[in-house]
Amino acid sequence: MDTNNVNEPMKMQFDIAHDDFIRAGEASSKIKKMLLQLGFSGRVIRKVAIATYEVEMNIVIHSWGGTLDVEIDPGSITIIARDRGPGIPNIDEAMQEGFSTAPEKIREMGFGAGMGLPNMKSCADEFFIDSVVNKGTTIKMIINS
Ligand SMILES: Nc1ncnc2c1ncn2[C@@H]1O[C@H](COP(=O)(O)OP(=O)(O)OP(=O)(O)O)[C@@H](O)[C@H]1O
Ligand SMILES: [Mg+2]
Questions:
Q1: Dist. CA 88–CA 94, nearest whole Å
Q2: CA dihedral in degrees (109, 65, 14, 98; nearest 10)?
Q3: What is the CA radius of gyration of the chain?
Q4: Where are the domains of the chain?
Q5: Quick one: 98 exposed, middle or buried, by C-beta within 10 A (0-12, 13-18, 19+)?
Q6: Domain 11-144 has CATH 3.30.565.10
Q7: How many angstroms from the chain centroid is the CA of residue 1?
């Protein structure tokens, strides 16, 4: 079967490891390169790049590890991040600009402004978050092209 069939969505999957700051950001940069190759607009690529980078970094920093799935269709890009981890006890609070539980060590690396989740939400046309304490977090974002 032709894997480049235009009628088939393109799918990419990445494993994201906890605390791996060497590889952190690789998944989002590969997704960005793919969208550039496929000819998506700069506006769409920027939104996907921000949303995937923020969700990837949250898995690295706040979870125990997870996966990032991306489905690229001509009209939309769907991003699903699933992790195992402590989960988010209060989602409304976590969604607020400036809320962060990042420890000092992480803040020294330049993270922990509490802007990742609000940025994801503003980049996404559709944003869903589900989290279970001591199990993990799932985030689904759809960005229309
Ligand atoms: N995947 C996750 N697992 C567990 N907790 C999470 C996860 N993602 C976010 N959180 C919680 O939600 C808070 C807010 O997340 P957000 O991405 O907005 O900010 P941050 O990661 O702390 O800082 P920044 O993204 O600006 O570097 C986090 O500090 C953390 O407590
Ligand atoms: Mg974050």
A1: 7
A2: -40
A3: 15
A4: 11-144
A5: exposed
A6: yes
A7: 30
Ligand 2 centre to CA of 75 (Å) is 27
Note the pLDDT tens digit of each residue in 19-34. 999 999 999 999 999 9
**What confidence tens digit (pLDDT) does each residue in 92-117 have?**
999 999 999 999 999 999 999 999 99
Spatial neighbors of 73 by CB under 8 A, at least 6 apart, are 9
C-alpha angle 72-42-34 in degrees, rounded to nearest 5? 40
- 132 C-beta neighbours (distance < 10 Å), count: 13
pLDDT at 3 over 60: no
Atom of ligand 1 nearest to the CA of 97: 18
Task: Give the residue among 15, 31, 20, 17 at the shortest CA–CA distance from 109.
Answer: 20
Proximal ligand: closest to the CA of 112: 1
CA-CA-CA-CA torsion sign (143, 32, 61, 63): positive
Q: Which two tokens stand for residue 133?
A: 């304490």
